[in-house]
Fold each of these.
Amino acid sequence: MHREQRIRDLIKEEFTGWKKWEVTWLLTACAVIFALSVYWKDTATGIVSAVTGVACVVCTGKGKLSAYFFGLINSILYAWISWKAKYYGEVMLNALYYVPMQFWGFIVWSRHMSRETHEVEKRRMSLRGLVLLILAVAGGTALYGKILAMLGGSLPFVDALSTVVSVIAMAVSVYMYMEQWLLWIAVDVVTVFMWAVHFAKGGESMATLLMWIVYLGNAVIMLIKWNRESKGSSSSKHMEHAS
C-alpha cells in the first residue's frame, strides 16, 4: 500500500509546476515531429524514438524524473535505428552507456528533488570543476582519437570528440550541473550534421534528424533556464551558509 501511494505521489509530482511555455514547448515539439515524420513516411520505430527522445530532453530541462523513463525507451530504439544505419558508435554509446545510465540517473535525481518546485536541484560547477571538465574532454578526445585512427576510422578525432563529449555530458546531466547544456549543444550540432548526411543519401531517418534538431533548440533554451535557476540556487545556499 505504501509503495502504491509513493508511485501515485511521483506521478502527481511529474505534472506539478509546469509553466505554460514549458507545456507549450513540449506539446508543440512532439506534435511537429510526429506530424512531419508521418508525412515523410518514417518507420513506427523512428517516430516513437523521436517523440520519446524529445519528451526526454524537455523533461530533463524541466528537472523531472520522467526524463529517465522516456530516455530509456529512446535509447533502446535509437540504438536499433543506428544499427540499421551502420552508425555503430551510436549503437555502443546508447546500448552500453545511455541505457544503464537511465537507471543510475533516476536513482540520483530521486534523492535530490526539491519539495517546493518538485524539480531536481540545479547546480553550477566551480572553477576547479570546469577545468577538470575541459581536461577530461581534451584528454579523452586525444586518447580515443588515437585509438580510432589506429583502427582506420574516418575523421577519428571528430568522431572521438562527439563520443567523448556525449559520455561526459550524460554524467554531468545525472549530477545536475548546468554546464551539461553547453556539452549537449556541441553534441547536437555534430549529430544533426551526421543524420542530415544519412538522410541526404536516401536513409529513412527524417524523424531522427528532426529529433536532433529539436534537441539542439531545446539545449539552447534549457541552457538559459538552468543558468538562471542555478544562479538562484547558488545564492540561496550562500545565504544559508552565511546565516
Amino acid sequence: MSVPPPSPSDFPARRAAMEYVCTGCASRHSVDELLYTCPECGGVLLLEDPDFDALAEAGPGYWRGLFDARRATRTTALRGVFRFYELMAPVLEREDIVYLGEGDTPIVEASAALAASVGRRFAFKNEGQNPSASFKDRGMAGAFSYLRALVRLHGWDEVLTLCASTGDTSAAAALYGSYVGEPIRTVVLLPRGRVTPQQLSQPLGSGALVLEVPGVFDDCMKIVEYLADHYRVALLNSKNSWRILGQESYAYETAQWYGWDLAGKSLFVPVGNAGNITAILSGLLKLRRLGILPALPRLVGVQSEHADPVWRYYQAPAGARRFEPVTVRPSVAQAAMIGNPVSFPRVRLLAERYQREGGDFRVVRVTEQAIMDAMLLANRHGHIACTQGGECLAGLLAAVEQGLLDRDEFAVLDATAHSLKFAGFQSMYFDNSFPPAYGVTPDPGLVNRPEAVMDEERKRALTAEEFTREAALAVARRAGLRGRSR
C-alpha cells in the first residue's frame, strides 16, 4: 500500500546518523568534526546515511511524488538543491540551509539545425544559470549549510574557509561566504595568470582574500591540503564530502526532468578534479537503490588530451590499470586542467558499483581544437556553453565516432559554467591569438568579428540626415535587405 507524501512545504522530520566512510580502508567516522581525509589511512571520504535503505519502505512512487511536489514549494530551505533533502544531507536543520537560488537549472534541447549538424538529438543542462554562474554553487550550498550547523554545534567564533581554484570554485566560495558572513571568512588560492579576468573579478567583488600562486591548480591544491592538515580551516575543494552531496542534485534534477526515467540516455560530464562526476555517480546509484530509477543511464566522463589521467586509467585493460598523475598542458577547459584529480579514488569505487548495477561508465578524450570548435558551434545555435560545455559536446562527437552510443541514444551534456566566463578564449579564437601550446587554429567558418559601417572621418563630413541615410544603406547592403514592395 503506497504512503501518501507529506505537504511539500513541510520541512522533513527525519534525521540521519550520517558518517564519513573512507574509500580506502572503509573505516567510519563521526560528522561532528571537519574531516577531509581518513584519520587512519589518509584516503578520501564519502558521506553515507547508514539507514538509507529504510527509505525504500515508502516505495519509489512516494519519493517521486514528494520531490515533484516540492518543485512548487515556497519553503526557502527546500527550493534549491535541498529539494532532495532525504537523499543528500538529512542531518541539517531548517535554519542551517543556505539558499541563493542554486539548482533547478534548465535542460535545453539542441535546435534542429544543431542536432542535424551533430547527427543526433541532445541537450545541454545550463549550469551557468546558477548564482555565481557555475555548477560549483550546488556544492557550496551543501558545504556552507554544513558549516553553519557546525558553528551552531560548537559555538565557533571564527571559521576560515579555504580553497584552491581555477576560477569557478573561488567565485562560488566567495559568494556563499560573503552571504553567510561572520564568523566565516574566505580565502582563495589561484594559479597566477591561469584564471580568466571574468572569473578573477568574482571573488574580488565578493570581498574574499585572493592569493595568487605561481604554477597550476595542482600546486595550489597541495598548499591548501598542507594548510588543512596543520591548521583549523574549512577546505572547500571537492575533497570536502559535503560539497559532493550538494552536487548530487544535478543527477536528481536530470532524472526528474525526464520523468524519473533515464533509459536510452547518456550523461556527458567533464572530469576535472573528479568531484562532479563522483557526485553524479553517487546520486544515480541512490536513485537506483530506492527503485526511483528503473535503470541507470550511460555515464561518460570527458577529458582534454592536455589533462587526461582518468582517460589513461580506463584505457588500460581492467586487470592492468594503474592510476598515474600527468603533467598538464595549457587548456581552454581550465576547470578540467588537473593532472591529479583529488576525487579519483571515489570515481574508481563508485564506477565499479555503477557497472555492477548494470550501468555503463566510459571516459573519452578530446583535443583542444575540438573543445573550442564545439563550444562555438553550440553557442551560435543558441546555447550559453562554457569551454567545459564545449568539451562535453566534443566528447559526444568522439563517442559517436567511436561507436560507444546506441543509434537513438539521447545525450545530456553538462555545460558547467556560463559562456561569458570564458569570453577571452572566444576572442583569442576570433583573433587567431592562441599561443602554440594550446594547439588551436581557428576555423574560418566559426570566426566572427564586428564590422564598421563607416569611419569617424566620413561621419564628420555628413549632416545628421545624410549620416542616417548613408549608414542605413550600408547596413541594408551588408545585411542583404530588400526594399519594400509597393
Amino acid sequence: MFLKKLSLINYKNFESEHFEFDGKINCFVGANGVGKTNILDAIYHLSLGKSYFNPVATQNIRHGEDFFVIEGEFEKDERGEKVVCSLKRGGKRIIKRNGKAYDRLSDHIGLLPLVIISPADRDLILEGSDTRRKFVDGVIAQSDKKYLQDLLKYQKVLAQRNSLLKYFALNQTFDVSTLSVYDEQLHAFGTEIFNKRVAFLEDFIPIFKEQYVSISGGKEDVSLTYDSKLLDDGLLSLLEKNIDRDRYLQYTSTGIHKDDLDFDIAGHPIKKFGSQGQQKSFLIALKFAQFQFIQEQAKTTPILLLDDIFDKLDENRVSHIVSLVNDENFGQIFISDTHADRTEKVVKNIHQSYKIFKL
C-alpha cells in the first residue's frame, strides 16, 4: 500500500498544495515552521480521520478560512483508493472513500494502516494513563473493527452513567435499579475490551522486547505491564463495590477507562529512572513493535511517518532505524527534517528510490 498523491486546501499553514510521491521514501526538508510536520499530519488525518498533534479539529483550519480539505490517492492491493477528509467551521468532519461519505467515521479506521514516530511520543512516558490507553486502543483498532465499536459504546454508556450520578447528587435521590442497567452494559462491553487488551499485550510485549534489545544492544532489562483492576475482579463486581465512592465523586471511578501500562527499566519506572537515551529507545521500540503488530494483523504494510527524529536522536539510533527500514518488510516512508544534506545522506544509505521536497 502507498500514497500516490496528496492535495491540501486551507490545511494548517497551507493555502493550496499538491504533492506526487515516490512509492518508497519521501522527505520534506526546510526550516522550522514551514509546515513539514503539517504534511505528515495530513497523511495521518487521511488514515485515522483526525490530527495526531491537535485534537481540536477546527484548529487545523488555516487562519482566516472556514474549511479545510485533504485529498489523498492511494494504491492498495492493486486498486485505487481515493480518500477525502474535510471540515467546515460549525460542521462535522466528513470522510469520503471513493466519493462516498462514511455513515460512521470509525468505519474508516483500518483501511489505511499507518504508524508515526515523533518527538511528541514522549507524552506516552510523561503524561497520564489516558495517553497510554489511547496508544493501546489505537493499535488494536487498526485491525479490529469490533473492538473500536465496543470501545465507542462503552464510552457512551460511561458518559450516561456519569450523568446519572450527577443527577442523583443534584436531586438528592438514588435509584440502584436504574444504575444497574448501565452497570450491566459497561460490564458487557468492558469485559470484551479487557479480554482483547490482555490478548493484544500477550502478543505485543515479546515483539516490543525484541525491538528494544535490537535498539539498545540488549544492555537493559525493560518491561511493559498491563495495570487493570479487572485482572483481580470482574467489572460488575468492581462497579457494585464502588457505588458509594462513585456517588460521592459523581463519576465512575473504576473500569477499563482507568487501565494503564507500566513502563519500567530494571524494575523501576522509566519516567523517573530512565535516561533520555533509554526513554528514546523505549519509545522507538514501542513504535516499531506497533508497526510489526499491525503489519501482521492487517496483512498489509503500514505507511511509516518519521517526524523530525533525526534531529532528536543520536547517530547510533538513527543508524538502527535506517537498518530497520532498509528491510524489505517496510513499505512507504515519509520523513521530515531540518537539514537537507543530512536527510539525503540518510536516505541514500537505505538503498531505495526516494524524493526530496524542499519547503
Amino acid sequence: MNIRDIETPALIVDKKIMLENMKAMDTIISGTNLKLRPHYKSHKCSELAWLQIKNGAKGMTCSKLSEAIDLCDCGIDDILIANQITDAKKIRRLADLAGCCRLTVCVDDENNIRELAKAAKNSGTTIYCLVEYEIGMKRCGVLTKEEVLSLVRVIEECENLVFEGIQAYAGHASHMTDAKERKNVTDANFDKLGKLLSYLKENNVNVNIVSGGSTGTAELKTKSVYNELQAGSYLFMDYTYRDLDLPFKNSLFVLSTVVSRKDGLTVVDAGVKTCGVDQGMPGIYDNACEEVVASEEHFQLHKLNKPLNVGDKIKLIPGHCCSTVNLHDKIYLVEDDKVVGRLLVTARGMGK
C-alpha cells in the first residue's frame, strides 16, 4: 500500500531515517562511558522499545508507572521511572511491579522514601532509587548536596531499597538554539554535579549511576560524569530541534489531506487533536508557508511555497514528537512512500 492510500490524519515513520538516527546515536556514544537508556514517552511503542534494547540500549526510561507496567508486560526487565511516585495506591503497585523487573524510581523526599520502603517490604521486593538533584530545570529534585546525602542515608537505612545513584536532568538546555549558550549551561551543570559527586565520595557514598541528558545535549554528555543517557526524541526528532545542527533527521510525520484551498489559504484535516503543538506549530515536509494556524481538527497553512490541490497529501513535522505520538493508536512504517509495517502505540494515554 502506498501512503496516498492511508486514511488521514495518520502517523507515519520513515523506517530508513529512523534506523539512521539509531546509528547516529550509536556513533555519539561509541567508545564513551555513556550507556543509552531511551525514553519511552517519545514513542510509547513496545516494538520500538525492543528494537532499541536489541540495538544495545541498557534498559528503558519512562515517565509514568503505567508506562513502566506496559514495558514490563512486553518483557523489558530494566526500567527507570524518571519521576517521583507518591500516591499510596501507585506505591503499592510499584512495589509489586518491582518483583517482575529491575525497577528504579526517582526520589527527592524522605517521607516518600519511607513509604516506598514499607511497600517494598510488604511485597517482598527490592526497589532501586535515584536521588534527584535539581540542576536548573526548576522542577523536581533537591537543591543542595547536603540534602542529597541526607536522602542517601535514609535509603541506606531501608532494607528493601537500594541507593543506585543520581538523576540530574537539565531539559531546559536541550532546545537552546545557540550552541555556545547550550554548552555553557551544560558545562555549568557538569561543574555543579561534579562537586556533588566529590562530596558524596568524601562521605563514603558509592554512586553507580548518574542519569539524565536528552537529545539536544547528547553529544555534550559524552565527556562528563554522566554514564546514562535518557534521550528519546533522537529516534523521531522534533521540528523544534531544526536549528540545533544535530546529527538526527525527522522520521516522524503526521500525514494529512488538503480539504480546502482558496486565496492563499490551504486547510488540512489534521489539527491539535492529532498533532501536538505544546512546543510549537508543525513544519511541512518539502514545503513551507508564511504561517500555520491551529484548531481542533485543522491546520490552516497560509501562502504555501508549493501550492497544493484539494485531495493532495501533505506530511507535517510535529513540533513535539512525544505529545503527538500520544494522540495516535498506531504508527505506519514506510519506505519510499510504501507501507512496510504497522506498530501499535501500546502505551497511548498512559498518563498515570
